[in-house]
Write a structure and sequence with these properties.
Layout: H1 2-6, H2 10-18, E1 24-29, E2 36-38, H3 47-59, H4 70-79
Antiparallel strand pairs: 1-2
């Protein structure tokens, strides 16, 4: 029975992980510099890389491509 109490429960392990906000995550690299990501700035490795990414969004470097649908143009021409 003594060995049961020595095992760490999953909830206890999760709390231990939460106590270390700068713990290194090796699963996904930082999308900016490819260094290992850090839990505190996930998915980035640092505040600097997070700020670089934010700057790219704000400057329009990232954009979702849009394709005009010819059917929409026909509907607008018929409505007017």
């Amino acid at each position: 029975m003594g060995s049961v109490w020595r095992r760490r429960l999953p909830a206890v392990e999760a709390m231990a992980d939460a106590e270390a906000p700068n713990a290194v995550r090796h699963r996904h690299p930082c999308p900016i510099c490819a260094k290992p990501s850090v839990e505190r700035y996930r998915p980035f490795c640092s505040k600097r890389c997070a700020d670089v990414d934010l700057g790219r969004w704000l400057n329009g470097a990232y954009a979702i491509p849009a394709v005009d649908d010819p059917a929409d143009d026909d509907d607008e021409a018929n409505a007017g």
